# Entry
Amino acid sequence: MRASQIMPRLEHTGRLLLLIVLIGVWGMGEVSPAAAQDTGTGAFARLGFGARGMALGNALVADPSADVSPHYNPALLPSASGQRISASAALLSFDRELQFLEFTAPLGPTAGIGLSLTHAGVNDIDGRNADGARTETLSTDEFALSLAFGNRFADRVSVGTALTLYQSNLVPEVDPVRGFGIDIGVGVQATDRLHLAATVNDLLARYEWDASPIGGGSHTDRFPLRVRLGASYTLLGERLRLLGEVESRYTTRERRGTGVLVTSTGPQQQTRTESFRRHDLRGRLGASFRAVEILSVRAGVDRVGVDGTSGLRPSAGFGVRQAIGDLDLRISYTATLEPYVRTVMNTGTVELFL
# Structure
């Protein structure tokens, strides 16, 4: 079979695969796992990375665009067009804050590297003693420092990995706790229009707490292990891009209970701890349209399949670009409707290409 016959068949198959992903994601809206709320360990590192990603519903695991945050898939780094510095900040309700700082650059003809820092926190927490009297104002901080590398093997296949150091500061009397996670990603350019990808996120990541300074004990909180599969397809001369992905999430929990153990000296009360694993599915959809050369409009929805419509996180935004001498400046804005509380998170990103 000639190459001219193979490529149209690949593209037709690719369109079917993307359609399956999109139908699967949308069909998840009929599922309502009440336990699937994203309140687990390290939740701040799963809100999204920058205004563009959030506007597209964070469905960027298979986005073939140049200069995508490696947090979505480190295998996307080989597409970096040049050295890029990106800074983002989000305005949230309830005294929460979220910021990102990122640098990506190509390495040789087939590789790319990325370095990023994420910070999240809550301020103005009202501290009170056992009698209810106000004592102090508290705050919390969480950080994620990530180093990512990706390389293209052959013309259409790329592989990447990211190493992330997490830190959480919750209580002043307890030392900050740290954890280490690994992401692994792969991307396949199936056709000129279709891109497929998969990642495994937060391997080995966990916090090991020691609360003995405040009269507590030791405890381990594991990050959810996430497996993500996605696809993207471009239309109208690459002016329109559709994205979709499905995430399979595995969360390890501990359950404590008490019982009576009969011994030779008589019955004794015993506390037992057992671990169990919870699994849930969720999906994401996104679409981007380049209206004119300097303006793109975006929309998406995250958390499809989480608690019905109450758990959805829809978003919309835009991005503009302007050349300043030899520099390329891009500014993006996104408004995200948060689940359950229905407040709006405003996110802005400034990118500078050197």
Remarks:
- Confidence is low (pLDDT under 50) at residues 1-8, 12-37.
- The two ends are 45 Å apart (CA to CA).
